[in-house]
Design brief:
alpha+beta; phage-related protein like fold; 8-stranded mixed beta sheet; 5 helices
Length: 336
Protein backbone atom coordinates (compact mmCIF):
# COMPACT_ATOMS: atom_id res chain seq x y z
CA UNK A 1 0.00 0.00 0.00
CA UNK A 2 1.24 3.51 -0.75
CA UNK A 3 2.53 5.41 2.26
CA UNK A 4 1.13 8.69 0.98
CA UNK A 5 -2.19 9.84 -0.42
CA UNK A 6 -2.31 12.93 -2.62
CA UNK A 7 -5.17 15.17 -1.46
CA UNK A 8 -6.43 18.70 -2.01
CA UNK A 9 -4.96 19.84 1.32
CA UNK A 10 -1.55 18.12 1.23
CA UNK A 11 -0.03 14.63 1.48
CA UNK A 12 -1.74 12.31 3.97
CA UNK A 13 -0.13 9.29 5.63
CA UNK A 14 -2.93 6.68 5.47
CA UNK A 15 -1.65 4.89 8.56
CA UNK A 16 -1.46 7.86 10.91
CA UNK A 17 -3.58 10.53 9.21
CA UNK A 18 -0.65 12.96 9.38
CA UNK A 19 -0.87 15.70 6.74
CA UNK A 20 2.29 17.07 5.12
CA UNK A 21 1.64 20.49 3.63
CA UNK A 22 2.44 21.33 0.03
CA UNK A 23 5.94 22.79 -0.31
CA UNK A 24 8.09 23.95 -3.18
CA UNK A 25 7.87 21.69 -6.21
CA UNK A 26 5.91 19.14 -4.18
CA UNK A 27 2.56 20.84 -4.51
CA UNK A 28 -0.81 20.31 -6.13
CA UNK A 29 -1.96 23.85 -5.33
CA UNK A 30 -2.09 24.93 -9.01
CA UNK A 31 -4.81 22.30 -9.52
CA UNK A 32 -6.99 23.77 -6.78
CA UNK A 33 -8.79 26.48 -8.78
CA UNK A 34 -11.75 28.58 -7.74
CA UNK A 35 -14.69 27.63 -9.91
CA UNK A 36 -15.76 30.60 -12.00
CA UNK A 37 -19.48 30.82 -12.66
CA UNK A 38 -20.02 32.57 -15.98
CA UNK A 39 -23.50 33.66 -14.85
CA UNK A 40 -23.02 36.98 -13.06
CA UNK A 41 -24.91 37.74 -9.89
CA UNK A 42 -27.45 40.54 -10.20
CA UNK A 43 -27.48 43.26 -7.54
CA UNK A 44 -30.75 43.75 -5.71
CA UNK A 45 -32.83 46.66 -7.02
CA UNK A 46 -35.49 48.69 -5.23
CA UNK A 47 -38.89 49.26 -6.80
CA UNK A 48 -38.98 52.71 -8.46
CA UNK A 49 -42.57 53.83 -7.98
CA UNK A 50 -42.72 57.54 -7.23
CA UNK A 51 -42.79 58.82 -10.82
CA UNK A 52 -45.90 56.90 -11.85
CA UNK A 53 -48.32 58.96 -9.72
CA UNK A 54 -47.21 62.49 -10.63
CA UNK A 55 -48.65 64.79 -13.28
CA UNK A 56 -46.07 64.44 -16.03
CA UNK A 57 -45.17 67.47 -18.14
CA UNK A 58 -42.60 68.04 -20.87
CA UNK A 59 -40.93 71.34 -21.75
CA UNK A 60 -40.48 71.67 -25.53
CA UNK A 61 -36.96 72.25 -26.79
CA UNK A 62 -36.04 75.91 -26.97
CA UNK A 63 -38.59 76.99 -24.33
CA UNK A 64 -36.30 77.45 -21.34
CA UNK A 65 -35.77 75.51 -18.12
CA UNK A 66 -38.72 76.78 -16.06
CA UNK A 67 -42.25 75.39 -16.20
CA UNK A 68 -45.36 77.11 -14.89
CA UNK A 69 -48.57 75.44 -13.73
CA UNK A 70 -51.63 77.72 -13.46
CA UNK A 71 -55.00 77.23 -11.82
CA UNK A 72 -58.10 79.41 -11.42
CA UNK A 73 -59.27 80.21 -7.94
CA UNK A 74 -62.49 78.59 -6.75
CA UNK A 75 -65.62 80.74 -7.13
CA UNK A 76 -68.18 81.24 -4.38
CA UNK A 77 -71.61 79.63 -4.59
CA UNK A 78 -74.42 81.66 -6.15
CA UNK A 79 -76.68 83.81 -3.97
CA UNK A 80 -80.41 84.30 -4.24
CA UNK A 81 -81.43 86.76 -6.96
CA UNK A 82 -83.73 89.74 -6.38
CA UNK A 83 -86.19 90.24 -9.16
CA UNK A 84 -85.06 93.00 -11.50
CA UNK A 85 -81.75 93.57 -9.68
CA UNK A 86 -78.44 92.73 -11.33
CA UNK A 87 -76.14 91.03 -8.78
CA UNK A 88 -72.46 91.79 -8.38
CA UNK A 89 -70.21 89.59 -10.47
CA UNK A 90 -67.37 87.61 -8.97
CA UNK A 91 -63.71 88.32 -9.58
CA UNK A 92 -61.66 85.70 -11.31
CA UNK A 93 -58.21 84.92 -10.00
CA UNK A 94 -55.33 82.78 -11.22
CA UNK A 95 -52.43 81.43 -9.17
CA UNK A 96 -49.28 79.91 -10.59
CA UNK A 97 -46.60 77.48 -9.46
CA UNK A 98 -43.20 77.35 -11.13
CA UNK A 99 -40.29 74.94 -11.02
CA UNK A 100 -36.97 74.59 -12.81
CA UNK A 101 -35.31 71.54 -14.30
CA UNK A 102 -31.66 70.67 -13.70
CA UNK A 103 -29.30 68.16 -15.27
CA UNK A 104 -27.91 65.12 -13.45
CA UNK A 105 -25.39 62.55 -14.59
CA UNK A 106 -22.42 60.33 -13.85
CA UNK A 107 -20.06 57.99 -15.68
CA UNK A 108 -17.31 55.39 -15.32
CA UNK A 109 -14.13 54.91 -17.33
CA UNK A 110 -12.83 51.48 -18.34
CA UNK A 111 -9.26 50.95 -19.52
CA UNK A 112 -8.58 49.08 -22.75
CA UNK A 113 -6.60 46.45 -20.82
CA UNK A 114 -9.43 45.82 -18.39
CA UNK A 115 -11.93 45.44 -21.23
CA UNK A 116 -9.56 43.04 -23.03
CA UNK A 117 -8.56 40.84 -20.10
CA UNK A 118 -11.42 40.79 -17.58
CA UNK A 119 -13.38 37.54 -17.41
CA UNK A 120 -16.67 39.48 -17.28
CA UNK A 121 -18.10 41.88 -19.90
CA UNK A 122 -17.13 44.99 -17.93
CA UNK A 123 -18.66 47.60 -20.22
CA UNK A 124 -21.97 45.74 -20.46
CA UNK A 125 -22.17 45.29 -16.69
CA UNK A 126 -21.18 48.92 -16.06
CA UNK A 127 -24.05 49.94 -18.34
CA UNK A 128 -26.46 47.79 -16.30
CA UNK A 129 -25.31 49.34 -13.01
CA UNK A 130 -25.50 52.86 -14.43
CA UNK A 131 -29.07 52.24 -15.58
CA UNK A 132 -29.97 51.21 -12.03
CA UNK A 133 -28.24 54.33 -10.70
CA UNK A 134 -30.28 56.51 -13.07
CA UNK A 135 -33.53 54.97 -11.87
CA UNK A 136 -32.65 55.47 -8.21
CA UNK A 137 -31.50 59.03 -8.84
CA UNK A 138 -34.79 60.12 -10.43
CA UNK A 139 -36.90 58.20 -7.94
CA UNK A 140 -35.13 59.71 -4.92
CA UNK A 141 -35.27 63.23 -6.35
CA UNK A 142 -39.05 62.91 -6.68
CA UNK A 143 -39.44 61.31 -3.24
CA UNK A 144 -37.33 63.90 -1.44
CA UNK A 145 -39.38 66.73 -2.93
CA UNK A 146 -42.82 65.34 -2.18
CA UNK A 147 -42.18 64.29 1.43
CA UNK A 148 -41.84 67.99 2.26
CA UNK A 149 -45.62 68.49 2.11
CA UNK A 150 -47.28 70.37 4.97
CA UNK A 151 -50.11 67.87 5.59
CA UNK A 152 -49.06 65.24 8.11
CA UNK A 153 -50.78 62.69 10.34
CA UNK A 154 -48.92 60.91 13.16
CA UNK A 155 -49.72 57.33 14.10
CA UNK A 156 -51.24 57.07 17.57
CA UNK A 157 -49.50 55.46 20.55
CA UNK A 158 -50.94 51.98 21.03
CA UNK A 159 -53.48 53.01 18.40
CA UNK A 160 -55.37 55.27 20.84
CA UNK A 161 -53.31 58.21 22.15
CA UNK A 162 -52.81 61.17 19.80
CA UNK A 163 -49.30 62.30 18.88
CA UNK A 164 -48.55 65.85 17.77
CA UNK A 165 -44.90 65.70 16.67
CA UNK A 166 -42.38 63.37 15.08
CA UNK A 167 -40.16 63.37 18.17
CA UNK A 168 -43.10 62.19 20.31
CA UNK A 169 -43.58 58.97 18.35
CA UNK A 170 -42.58 55.71 20.00
CA UNK A 171 -42.36 52.03 19.04
CA UNK A 172 -46.10 51.55 19.60
CA UNK A 173 -46.97 54.19 16.98
CA UNK A 174 -47.62 51.73 14.17
CA UNK A 175 -49.57 52.35 11.00
CA UNK A 176 -53.03 50.88 11.55
CA UNK A 177 -56.23 50.58 9.55
CA UNK A 178 -57.66 53.42 11.61
CA UNK A 179 -54.75 55.70 10.67
CA UNK A 180 -55.23 54.85 6.99
CA UNK A 181 -58.92 55.66 7.38
CA UNK A 182 -58.02 59.02 8.94
CA UNK A 183 -55.74 59.85 6.02
CA UNK A 184 -58.32 58.82 3.42
CA UNK A 185 -60.94 60.90 5.23
CA UNK A 186 -58.59 63.91 5.18
CA UNK A 187 -58.30 63.62 1.39
CA UNK A 188 -62.03 63.11 0.92
CA UNK A 189 -62.86 66.17 3.00
CA UNK A 190 -60.49 68.19 0.82
CA UNK A 191 -62.28 66.90 -2.31
CA UNK A 192 -59.05 65.32 -3.55
CA UNK A 193 -59.80 63.34 -6.74
CA UNK A 194 -58.85 59.68 -6.71
CA UNK A 195 -56.48 57.79 -9.00
CA UNK A 196 -58.54 55.21 -10.89
CA UNK A 197 -61.15 55.18 -8.14
CA UNK A 198 -58.84 54.95 -5.12
CA UNK A 199 -56.20 56.92 -3.31
CA UNK A 200 -52.65 55.54 -3.50
CA UNK A 201 -50.15 55.03 -0.68
CA UNK A 202 -46.40 54.56 -1.10
CA UNK A 203 -45.31 52.38 1.80
CA UNK A 204 -42.07 50.87 3.13
CA UNK A 205 -41.96 47.06 3.57
CA UNK A 206 -41.39 47.47 7.32
CA UNK A 207 -44.63 49.42 7.61
CA UNK A 208 -46.48 47.02 5.32
CA UNK A 209 -45.46 44.23 7.71
CA UNK A 210 -47.41 45.92 10.51
CA UNK A 211 -50.41 46.72 8.32
CA UNK A 212 -50.85 43.36 6.61
CA UNK A 213 -51.96 41.73 9.88
CA UNK A 214 -55.08 43.90 10.00
CA UNK A 215 -58.21 41.80 9.21
CA UNK A 216 -59.48 44.52 6.86
CA UNK A 217 -56.39 44.19 4.65
CA UNK A 218 -57.03 42.91 1.11
CA UNK A 219 -54.15 41.49 -0.93
CA UNK A 220 -53.81 42.79 -4.48
CA UNK A 221 -54.32 39.39 -6.11
CA UNK A 222 -57.78 39.16 -4.53
CA UNK A 223 -59.12 42.23 -6.31
CA UNK A 224 -56.90 42.51 -9.38
CA UNK A 225 -59.38 41.12 -11.92
CA UNK A 226 -59.85 43.62 -14.74
CA UNK A 227 -58.16 46.40 -12.74
CA UNK A 228 -54.70 47.47 -13.78
CA UNK A 229 -52.19 46.85 -11.01
CA UNK A 230 -49.67 49.61 -10.28
CA UNK A 231 -45.97 48.75 -10.23
CA UNK A 232 -45.24 47.42 -6.73
CA UNK A 233 -48.90 47.22 -5.66
CA UNK A 234 -49.50 44.84 -2.75
CA UNK A 235 -53.01 45.46 -1.44
CA UNK A 236 -55.90 47.75 -0.53
CA UNK A 237 -57.46 49.11 2.66
CA UNK A 238 -60.23 51.70 3.19
CA UNK A 239 -60.18 52.76 -0.44
CA UNK A 240 -56.39 53.18 -0.50
CA UNK A 241 -54.22 51.06 -2.79
CA UNK A 242 -50.75 50.38 -1.37
CA UNK A 243 -47.56 50.35 -3.43
CA UNK A 244 -44.53 48.91 -1.62
CA UNK A 245 -40.93 50.01 -2.09
CA UNK A 246 -37.75 50.23 -0.01
CA UNK A 247 -37.42 53.70 -1.56
CA UNK A 248 -40.22 54.99 0.70
CA UNK A 249 -38.58 57.60 2.93
CA UNK A 250 -37.15 56.49 6.27
CA UNK A 251 -35.93 59.10 8.78
CA UNK A 252 -33.65 58.51 11.74
CA UNK A 253 -31.62 60.72 14.04
CA UNK A 254 -32.25 64.44 14.44
CA UNK A 255 -35.90 65.22 15.12
CA UNK A 256 -36.85 61.55 15.49
CA UNK A 257 -37.46 59.56 18.67
CA UNK A 258 -34.16 58.30 20.14
CA UNK A 259 -32.87 55.21 18.36
CA UNK A 260 -36.01 54.70 16.28
CA UNK A 261 -36.59 55.01 12.56
CA UNK A 262 -39.65 56.99 11.42
CA UNK A 263 -41.37 55.87 8.22
CA UNK A 264 -43.07 58.32 5.87
CA UNK A 265 -46.07 56.77 4.11
CA UNK A 266 -47.37 59.09 1.38
CA UNK A 267 -51.08 58.87 0.59
CA UNK A 268 -51.93 60.62 -2.65
CA UNK A 269 -54.80 61.84 -4.76
CA UNK A 270 -54.66 62.61 -8.48
CA UNK A 271 -52.11 65.19 -9.70
CA UNK A 272 -50.89 65.97 -6.19
CA UNK A 273 -47.45 66.71 -7.64
CA UNK A 274 -45.86 67.31 -11.02
CA UNK A 275 -42.76 65.92 -12.68
CA UNK A 276 -41.05 67.60 -15.59
CA UNK A 277 -38.49 66.74 -18.23
CA UNK A 278 -37.27 68.52 -21.34
CA UNK A 279 -38.17 67.12 -24.74
CA UNK A 280 -34.99 65.40 -25.90
CA UNK A 281 -33.41 65.76 -22.44
CA UNK A 282 -34.74 62.59 -20.82
CA UNK A 283 -32.57 59.73 -19.67
CA UNK A 284 -29.72 59.21 -22.14
CA UNK A 285 -27.17 56.41 -21.82
CA UNK A 286 -23.88 57.46 -23.41
CA UNK A 287 -21.05 55.11 -24.40
CA UNK A 288 -17.85 56.48 -25.93
CA UNK A 289 -15.60 53.66 -27.18
CA UNK A 290 -11.86 53.93 -26.75
CA UNK A 291 -11.27 55.36 -30.23
CA UNK A 292 -13.48 58.32 -29.27
CA UNK A 293 -12.64 58.90 -25.60
CA UNK A 294 -9.32 57.17 -25.00
CA UNK A 295 -6.84 59.86 -25.92
CA UNK A 296 -4.02 59.55 -28.45
CA UNK A 297 -3.47 55.84 -27.62
CA UNK A 298 -7.12 54.72 -27.29
CA UNK A 299 -6.51 53.72 -23.67
CA UNK A 300 -10.02 53.84 -22.19
CA UNK A 301 -13.75 53.95 -22.90
CA UNK A 302 -16.43 55.83 -20.96
CA UNK A 303 -19.97 54.79 -20.06
CA UNK A 304 -22.42 57.17 -18.44
CA UNK A 305 -25.85 58.73 -18.37
CA UNK A 306 -27.48 62.12 -17.98
CA UNK A 307 -31.04 63.37 -17.58
CA UNK A 308 -32.87 66.64 -17.02
CA UNK A 309 -35.64 66.72 -14.43
CA UNK A 310 -37.18 68.93 -11.78
CA UNK A 311 -37.51 65.99 -9.39
CA UNK A 312 -41.08 66.90 -8.43
CA UNK A 313 -43.16 69.90 -7.41
CA UNK A 314 -46.13 69.71 -5.06
CA UNK A 315 -49.12 71.17 -6.92
CA UNK A 316 -51.90 70.56 -4.39
CA UNK A 317 -51.03 70.32 -0.70
CA UNK A 318 -54.63 69.21 -0.01
CA UNK A 319 -54.33 66.21 -2.32
CA UNK A 320 -51.60 64.47 -0.36
CA UNK A 321 -50.86 63.61 3.25
CA UNK A 322 -47.77 62.16 4.88
CA UNK A 323 -48.36 59.58 7.59
CA UNK A 324 -45.43 59.26 9.98
CA UNK A 325 -45.13 56.11 12.07
CA UNK A 326 -42.72 53.75 13.77
CA UNK A 327 -43.01 49.97 13.75
CA UNK A 328 -41.61 46.56 14.49
CA UNK A 329 -38.33 47.29 12.67
CA UNK A 330 -37.79 50.88 13.82
CA UNK A 331 -34.91 49.94 16.13
CA UNK A 332 -32.90 48.30 13.33
CA UNK A 333 -33.85 50.10 10.09
CA UNK A 334 -31.62 52.92 8.91
CA UNK A 335 -32.40 56.23 7.22
CA UNK A 336 -32.44 56.34 3.44
Amino acid sequence: MSNVINTTAGYVDPATGTVTAFSGANTLAPEMKTYYDTELLVNARPEMVHAQFGRQQTIPQGRGKVIEWRKFNTLENAGQLTEGVIPDGQKLGVSSITDEVAQYGTYVSVSDQLALTAVDPVILEANTELAASAGRTRDELIRNDIISGTSVIYARKNGTTDVTSRASLDATCKLTADTVNRAATFLKKNHAPTIDGCYVAIIHPSVAYDLRSDPAWLDAHKYAGPNEIFDGEIGKLHGVRFVETTQAKVLKGEGCPSGLAVYCTLILGKDAYGTVDVNGGGLEMIIHPKHEAGGPLDQYSTIGYKLMTNGAKILYEDRMVRVESCGAYSATDEAN
